[in-house]
Amino acid sequence: MEVIIYGKAGCTNCDKTRMLCQIQSLPFQYLTVGEDISAEALQEQVGQPVRSLPQIFLRNDEGTTYVGGYDDLRTHLRQLSLAAA
Question: Where is the Glutaredoxin domain (predicted)?
């Protein structure tokens, strides 16, 4: 599983998302909105208006899934660890 993070400089939750991935040894790709992807292209990829960052996706063998923001990723990872226990 790879985490794909769309964020921007100076975004606290973007930084927290990267730190969470590092702490949990999750591979991640960080893309900067406005440099690596336009806000319009990100909104098209998410499929709804983007009002906050980060926007997070998970990529695995089945494909790529939209997760949401930082809190959504934390919840998703917690559910995965409970299911594996």
Answer: 3-60
